[in-house]
Design goal:
It is built from 13 helices and 20 strands. It has 488 residues and is an alpha/beta fold. The strands form four sheets. Strands 7, 8, 9, 10, 11, 14, 15, 16 and 18 form a nine-stranded mixed sheet that branches. Strands 1-6-5-2-4-3 form a six-stranded mixed sheet, covered by helices on one side. Helix 11 links the parallel strand 15 and strand 16. Bound molecules: ligand BES, manganese (II) ion and zinc ion. The site of manganese (II) ion (MN) has 5 residues, from loops.
């Protein structure tokens, strides 16, 4: 897919030469000064009750006389916001994506100012609408014919919009990578597959990729990570992928992603209904790889390291049992009271590991708790951090990227729940506040790190008819990393 800016012709929208013209109305009423054929058609449609100027409504017109483009779609964004634009483009594409158009021209009218963020949002909406999972589905619908999108603009804004399109394209590629990985079934997307994907990214984008295997992790003393991995025949992989876009001396941003390629619950086995969805339990890992892809694609001047503990959580004969006590890389011992609280067991060793990378900040990303889904639903990711400045940065990045998070508490009082009579801590508390006690568990392994934790259990995928991965929070993370690159 090719995204470009295109100067609006002197003859106006009527003269636009494309297979389809999408006119997004960035206002609550038909804007003044709209080209006559469009204004007439719109007026007639409103009068006939076929179109109301409210966000998400669309009107498809074929062969509208006076227009050069054979297809015209009018879509209302309600206002000039990025959110409205995304909604309007998504609605318009339902009519266009399976049609014969190759080249789509998009105009945003009735908006005061069209900026780079609109351009990025356009790309995101197109990419999201056209995404089709096909890796294990040969019968998936054929790819859309649409392969070129032009954003109409005036001269002065062209450069900014082109930059916005470029950011949008890299973000979309990173998001798509995360979606593809998370959608891929557990028998295909194994820890080895994640490691191979990291290596391929390394080749394509010049990342330095190191894969630690079971023996390496044993030598280091990652007793907690390996305890989760021991129930599975799939060998665990501990992935470290470095993107060096800034000077050697510059402390890296480190992203740690939960890479459970399938979570059965282990001996504390999950109920079988909807257990298939636990193939998405490597959504954190997928978002780390997706963010590396986007940031490297943008050649951002920042050092970024992705760290992924990857394994399966299986109830094999060697599997860890409730009550087993293991020694983590930090030296602290953990009584594994529930083998289904495995995410924190692999992340705690990863958090201890990253200390040696001397990071500026560490953000871990994990489909960690069902409790977070209960607390925040599917719209906002849970954000936990004792560091106010870091929390603010991440929240701002989420708003900017249309990939929002919400801050949750980390009071010491919540730590009580983790006390154990047989080890330094248990791996679960009571049911109440489950997302918070999980975060409190991780906090015990963060030492002096500037650390934040994103619980994406509710946002990394959708259930129901639209079942599948969302690619979140690649947009949030990418914006966060880019903002850090700029501040220097
Ligand atoms: N991967 C799950 C969390 C999860 C649940 C993600 C539902 C998405 C949807 C995690 O490993 C898990 O099983 N957590 C347990 C923790 C509990 C045993 C303390 C949970 O949330 O039930
Ligand atoms: Mn689990
Ligand atoms: Zn899990």
């Amino acid at each position: 897919m090719d995204f470009k800016t295109l100067a609006t012709p002197t003859g106006g929208l009527a003269a636009v030469n494309a297979d389809a013209l999408l006119v997004v109305l960035g206002c609550a009423a038909p804007p003044a000064g709209l080209d006559a054929p469009l204004a007439d058609a719109l007026g007639a449609a409103v009068k006939a009750g076929d179109f109301a100027c409210k966000a998400g409504s669309v009107l498809y017109l074929h062969g509208l006389s006076g227009m050069k483009a054979p297809r015209v779609v009018l879509a209302c964004a309600g206002d000039a916001s990025v959110k409205g634009l995304r909604k309007a483009v998504a609605a318009a594409l339902t009519t266009l994506k399976s049609g014969g158009s190759q080249h789509l021209a998009v105009a945003l009218v009735g908006a005061e100012a069209v900026g780079a963020e609109h351009a990025s949002a356009l790309v995101a909406a197109v990419a999201e609408s056209l995404y089709v999972y096909r890796q294990t589905k040969p019968s998936a619908p054929a790819a859309s014919k649409l392969d070129k999108v032009s954003l109409l603009c005036a001269k002065p804004e062209a450069a900014a919009l082109a930059e916005g399109l470029r950011l949008g394209e890299q973000l979309a590629a990173g998001t798509a990578l995360a979606r593809e990985l998370a959608n891929l079934p557990g028998n295909h997307c194994t820890p080895t597959h994640l490691a191979d994907t990291a290596k391929r990214l390394g080749k394509d984008f010049g990342l330095k990729v190191e894969i630690l295997d079971r023996a390496d992790c044993e030598k280091l003393g990652m007793g907690s990570f390996l305890a989760v991995a021991q129930g599975s025949a799939q060998p665990p992989k501990f992935i470290v992928a470095r993107y060096n876009g800034a000077g050697k001396g510059e402390a890296p941003v480190v992203l740690v992603g939960k890479g459970i390629t399938f979570d059965t619950g282990g001996i504390s086995i999950k109920p079988s209904a909807e257990m298939d969805e636990m193939k998405f339990d490597m959504g954190g890992a997928a978002s780390v790889l997706g963010t590396l892809r986007a940031v490297a694609g943008l050649k951002a001047k920042v050092n970024l390291i992705g760290v992924i503990p990857a394994c399966e959580n299986m109830p094999g004969s060697r599997a860890v049992k409730p009550g087993d006590v293991v020694t983590s890389l930090s030296g602290q011992t953990i009584e594994i009271l529930n083998t289904d609280a495995e995410g924190r067991l692999i992340l705690c060793d990863a958090l201890s590991y990253v200390e040696r990378l001397k990071p500026a900040v560490v953000v871990d990303i994990a489909t960690l708790t069902g409790a977070c889904v209960i607390a925040l639903g599917h719209h906002r990711s849970g954000l936990f951090s004792p560091d106010d400045a870091l929390a603010a940065e991440l929240l701002a990045a989420g708003e900017q990227a249309q990939d929002p998070a919400w801050r949750m508490p980390l009071d010491d009082e919540y730590d009580e729940a983790l006390k154990s009579n047989f080890a330094d801590m248990g791996n679960v508390g009571a049911r109440a506040g489950g997302a918070i006690t999980a975060a409190m568990f991780l906090k015990r392994f963060t030492g002096k790190l500037h650390w934040a934790h994103l619980d994406i259990a509710g946002t990394a995928w959708k259930s129901g008819v639209a079942k599948g991965a969302t690619g979140r929070p690649v947009p949030l993370l990418t914006h966060f990393v880019l903002a850090r690159a700029k501040h220097k």
